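Hi all, posting the design record for the shared folder.

TITLE: backbone redesign
STEP: 1 of 1
STRUCTURE INPUT:
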């Protein structure tokens, strides 16, 4: 190949790894059918040993002791949506870049328009590369967004966007979405690895030189990860993921990365005709439709950041008609369910080999914390023996392979949340029971358990 001729490479759109020829699977990230052909323009060779010497009149660096940090509330823009502010750490930091990702139709554009509605004291530039101005206006009217502070620009050229931002000088710049933005200096199409990196870096550099904050909407691939190069997540300051099922009403905003706050906080919303409504008491909302006097239903308590959330776990055990029993779980890891079923079979002698097992977490919530193990085991036993679990009972604890019930963190805040919502029997690991004796639990009873054998005795006494 000639020295100055173009070169053709094949790039994975998921991870950015390059191959010399096309293939069906990317061996770097394991994705299928994500490798696309890309033409690389020739670059002028530069000898690193012959670079021109730069003479500086004064030093560009500054001693860190002379840099003043603004710790007042003026360093953040309040969005007026408390659940969103909670997720980003108290508000949008000036000169910061936020990447907001989520499945199509989950509510990314809706929440951004609602932020425009609430931030009446700030100037906002909303840039859309996917919809026309008329389409956005129709959605804005439905959400009640109106005002002179919100400026709309339907453009995909990053140079035109930054020129408008320089002229308008907004407090908040919204890009919907980064996959539609392109730089005319790059020959590849919009959404390619090079275009996404170049456009994002151009926007980030412009944001860091001003008090303007930028929110970038990012698409996701079929696996749920943010589309484009992984370096995009490293370049921005905050990465927010919109979670939830489109068929469910509840939505969660979770911070996967936050340079200015905790990554443990979440924001809880409920989708309605008027947009996304804040859920300030998610435990009460998730348990509002909990059925009474039904077997296989148990309440658990998980921790999301500094917030304790109570949720309902439902189990259904029925005789199978298949050669091998069926196992399905929604909201709980399938492998974790298999482990807990094996523990119950081995330690309690309750065999599910001829039973189909279905497990569901109501409200679209996902239980990734092991503190829900005890509630899952109780729901499985209750469904198998068709014994009702009291409505005022909540189970908190991790279950080991030996059947022991292990301790969990922040037990005090979990127990207080359960007592606040009216639960009167709180099942906890026996090692944590002495720590709860001095708490004012409004008449709630602490039931310590050492292992799943204690659960077997508890269900035996209830049946008797």
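Okay, here is what came back for every position:
SEQUENCE:
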């Amino acid at each position: 190949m000639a020295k100055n001729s173009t070169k053709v490479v094949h790039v994975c759109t998921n991870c950015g790894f390059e191959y010399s020829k096309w293939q069906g699977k990317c061996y770097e990230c394991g994705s299928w059918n994500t490798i696309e052909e890309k033409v690389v323009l020739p670059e002028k060779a530069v000898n690193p040993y012959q670079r021109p010497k730069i003479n500086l009149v004064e030093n560009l660096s500054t001693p860190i002791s002379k840099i003043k940090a603004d710790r007042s509330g003026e360093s953040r823009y309040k969005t007026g949506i408390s659940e969103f502010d909670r997720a980003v750490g108290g508000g949008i930091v000036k000169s910061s870049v936020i990447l907001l990702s989520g499945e199509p139709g989950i509510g990314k554009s809706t929440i951004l328009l609602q932020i425009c509605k609430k931030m009446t004291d700030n100037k906002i530039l909303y840039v859309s590369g996917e919809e026309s101005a008329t389409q956005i206006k129709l959605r804005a009217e439905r959400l009640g967004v109106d005002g002179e502070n919100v400026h709309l620009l339907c453009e995909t050229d990053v140079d035109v966007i930054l020129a408008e931002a320089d002229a308008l000088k907004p407090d908040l710049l919204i890009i919907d979405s980064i996959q539609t933005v392109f730089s005319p200096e790059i020959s590849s199409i919009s959404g390619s690895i090079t275009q996404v990196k170049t456009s994002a870096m151009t926007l980030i550099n412009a944001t860091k030189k001003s008090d303007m904050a930028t929110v970038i909407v990012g698409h996701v691939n079929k696996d749920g990860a943010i589309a484009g190069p992984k370096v995009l997540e490293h370049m921005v300051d905050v990465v927010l993921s919109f979670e939830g099922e489109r068929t469910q009403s509840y939505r969660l905003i979770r911070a996967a990365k936050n340079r200015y706050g905790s990554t443990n906080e979440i924001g809880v919303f409920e989708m309605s005709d008027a947009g996304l409504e804040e859920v300030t008491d998610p435990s009460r909302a998730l348990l509002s439709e909990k059925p009474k006097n039904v077997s296989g239903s148990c309440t658990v308590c998980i921790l999301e950041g500094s917030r304790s959330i109570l949720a309902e776990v439902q189990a259904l055990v029925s005789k199978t008609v298949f050669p091998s029993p069926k196992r399905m779980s929604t909201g709980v890891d399938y492998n974790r369910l298999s482990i807990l079923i094996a523990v119950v079979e081995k330690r309690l002698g309750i065999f599910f080999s001829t039973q189909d097992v279905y497990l569901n977490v109501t409200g679209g919530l996902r239980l990734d914390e092991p503190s829900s193990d005890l509630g899952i085991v109780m729901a499985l036993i209750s469904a198998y023996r068709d014994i009702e679990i009291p409505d005022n009972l909540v189970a908190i604890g991790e279950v080991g392979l030996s059947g022991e019930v292990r301790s969990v963190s922040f037990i005090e805040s979990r127990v207080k949340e359960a007592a606040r919502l009216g639960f009167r029997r709180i099942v906890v690991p026996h090692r944590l029971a002495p720590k709860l004796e001095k708490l004012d639990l409004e008449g709630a009873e602490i039931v310590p358990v050492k292992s799943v054998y204690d659960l077997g005795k508890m269900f035996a006494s209830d049946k008797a």
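COMMENT: The chain has three domains: 7-43, 76-280, 284-463.
Let me know if anyone wants the other runs.
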